[in-house]
Fold these 2 entries.
Entry 1:
Amino acid sequence: MGNPKHPVLPNIMIEPKNDLMDKIISLAKRRGFIFPGSEIYGGLANSYDYGPLGVELKNNIKKLWWKMFVQQRSDVVGIDGSLIMNPKVWVASEHLKNFTDPLVECKKCHTRYRADQAPTICEVCKGKEFTEAKQFNLMFKTFLGPVEDENSIVYLRPETAQTMFVDFKQVLETSRMKIPFGIAQTGKSFRNEITPGNFIFRTREFDIMEIEYFIHPDNWEKNFDHWLSEQKKWIKAVGIDEKQVKYIEIPDGERAHYSKRTVDTEFLYPFGQKELYGIAYRTDFDLKNHEKMSGKSLKYKDPQTGQEFLPHVIEPTWGLDRTLLAVLLSCYSESEARSGKEDAVHETEVTLRLPKELAPIKIAILPLSRKDELIKPAEKILHSLQKHWMTQYDETASIGKRYRRQDEIGTPYCVTVDFETANDQSVTVRDRDTMKQDRVKIGELLDYFKEKLN
Ligand code: GAP
């Protein structure tokens, strides 16, 4: 995790699934999950924008994470820190010194490559000579205020962690937490990656969800194990295929500069087995350095024993964009046409089997025809349900096509308003996974979905 010195692991492929990546990228663009960034200007190397469905999915992952690790725990509180911090933070954390990747340059055309990923022949000009590897700092630099000189240089944060260390004392005092306790945060981080790639797997700005869990040093092993098992529970909760997940102990010499033990959670992406999450035992590395640099005490006094000590830290960290990618890869499924004979001519149908909590749209409302007697109750149902859940109204195309559109974006329920509705005040609810159809009274729809979705 986090260590640019950690060599790229060999691609361990169980079965080649390269076209799956293309399918996911095409679905994401076609249905408005993820677009290439700045596309009308020819794009900007490996930047992506989350579209209307993508932002829902991303927010739902974040909400579930916050619910599991902040809301439902009494020992974790959240913060939302600034992206630009006092540059002394990055001296104390040693990011200015150590947050580097080795870089080589083609001597002919000056194309740069990460030393551990460099080809033997330059991919641009076919040149065969490269410079010696030199260290390249991954932090984005900018200037604070109107003067662009040495004294106004600041950095965009490369990790969310540091605000949680720097604010440790303020959180402790205002929340009256006792050790062990954690500070959680989600938000953007920026790294000037030399070789971004593989869609949203490695980009230069991305979201991290992370906890700094402050402990007594005697208990680090127990807490490390606890957070590893919490990450395993999370994998299940978001619908990531557990068979594609491996836990890798990172050996001495390959861990980030601050870590005494690291276990990476790796996922078998179609382009190889690579990092998804990590847990690090950061010891008191950060608090100790911030204490030294700031001159402020960051010690904790145990109210029972009176013992004063610098807390140690277990840090479980989750990449949000990689989570979204692993979820899409895990939940994508194809089957032969199944939604009725009328459109079922040897077509492959796609279903995103997202956990209901993550689905961007929870319920689609589909009147069978555009006749007033169907549209009116359908609109009434829409207005009642959209107060509680993300819904989508669709009256175009055949019902089979509309079901398929919803399956493809992972909508768990479709409500069909038909010609019987006016007579029996009921609608048909179709379940994405079982294909079962329930006839439900309009007046009971709210309770029906409360039971299914909450
Ligand atoms: N505070 C520890 C830390 O930042 P990290 O392993 O460097 O650890 C955390 O980063 C997570 O962020 C990773 O596990 C990964 O999921 C994600 N991540 C790291 N670099 C990324 C990148 N360039 N693009 C997308 N996600 C990235």
Note: Residues 1-16 have pLDDT under 50 and may be disordered.
Entry 2:
Amino acid sequence: MDKIKMTTPLVEMDGDEMTRILWKMIKDELLLPFIDLNTEYYDLGLEHRNETDDQVTVDSANATKKYGVAVKCATITPNAARMTEYNLKEMWKSPNGTIRAMLDGTVFRAPIVVKGIEPCVKNWKKPITIARHAYGDVYKASEMKIPGPGKCELVYTAEDGTETRELIHNFTGAGVVQGQHNLNDSIESFARSCFSYALSTRQDLWFATKDTISKKYDHTFKDIFQEIFDAEYKEKFEEAGITYFYTLIDDAVARVMKAEGGFIWACKNYDGDVMSDMVSSAFGSLAMMTSVLVSPAGYYEYEAAHGTVQRHYYKHLKGEETSTNSVATIFAWTGALRKRGELDGNQELSTFADKLEKACVDTIESGKMTKDLALITTIENPTVLNSEDFIKAIRATLEKML
Ligand code: NAP
Ligand code: MG
């Protein structure tokens, strides 16, 4: 069989620990035998970030702007313990944070649904993708403890010095107060990322706020979404046969529980924080959760939602066997390859991505899986495989399909 050719490079961001080990196995077993893999490689492993004063992270984000599509391995976000472990010059920032800030993107997280790993919510049949706005609100709030009686106000001083005031409360005793903000630019970017990702995956988009109570703050989110939808996306949604649906956050929460799935749920920052943990744990496993950063300019960066699986890596270093689930990392590759195929009109590449995903799902559904899934599956007597044998089992399934 001839290997599949690629016309444009994919930005490849390598990472750390156990996921770095899986990264190589995935390339060797599932990609290189079938594709003439064309990537621009950036080593985001912590040692190399330290050597380059984190310039490599910035370079990889710039390359993503150049080529449009990236695939990223999980990386260590340094803390005090990592400073010593890796003898770091500085406590480098989270690469995901750096990349997200440079691409101005929104992160979409979606579970990989397989028979035998059943969601706790029994009517969820298709994935529910959560899009979380990653700027402002309570995460950038100013707070005060109010010690006793007194007047508390919001004051806006314009550049010309004029003041606008709004009473928060006339305190008659002690209490607390909080000032939140957001930016129209950020909300607009969030809205565009959500609409374009809905189009790109042909899924309905839901958005919800508490605009009935928050008539200025939340209502602005609602209005910005609606204005951008009407002006830029309405016709495209009609052509794609998908809908944009706005409702109140409490109504959305109730509807999600009764829905079948198969849509994107755009959430304000706090709602997304809370709801993404609820949705992902209800779907079963962090190791079966994918994540893609979508910028309003249409750049895509795919990764697994989990981290570097440190505990497994230390076992691996001691020569012990590991059973680490590579599915989310494989889906990061297939997501990126499919998108590359779409953008380049390379049907063969997109079809390969579909087949590799199906090979993962079929392998698990046939009862072969890693330990994390064996613990929660409804399949009787599953075969528990080690990290490497699981990837080899996927390759065997894939070869039968090709
Ligand atoms: P983690 O790597 O997600 O792992 C937490 C635990 O979840 C693991 O110990 C393991 O449980 C289970 N798990 C996660 N992924 C798994 C997989 N693929 N297969 C099987 N089990 C899996 O989170 P962490 O241990 O808290 O963080 C480790 C490092 O990852 C940190 O340095 C953090 O900075 C980094 N991190 C990076 C990203 C990213 O790059 N996007 C995201 C999160 C964290 P058991 O040990 O019980 O088997
Ligand atoms: Mg959280």
Note: The longest helix spans residues 217-240.
